[in-house]
Amino acid sequence: QGQLVESGGGLVQPGGSLRLSCAASGIMFSLYDVGWYRQAPGETREMVALISSGGNIQYAASVKGRFTTSRDNAKNTMYLQMNSLKPEDTAVYFCNAGRIIGDAEVDYWGKGTLVTVSS
Question: How many Å apart are CA 51 and CA 61, to the nearest integer?
């Protein structure tokens, strides 16, 4: 059974940086499209960044130019470098890995890591 585990969250001042990691196990990581999502209190979960299995990257408009995502298939790990953090970036950040196998969509989620941006 696949598992994703996020790490790297914490409290940071506005303008600061954090690097999130997501370690995958139990799946052929390189075959999966992966992504970062976040959910702020009282809000719905939103996409932050996506990397396809082929390496195509997309960012939400709200983080473009400030956040950078990457993946290391040899380490079964994905990363989210967050710079110039703002209070509105405060949320629980989740990683996701998904792919289509036959007729089924296979989806894994981590449990999330809390990022708090506050002075």
Answer: 15
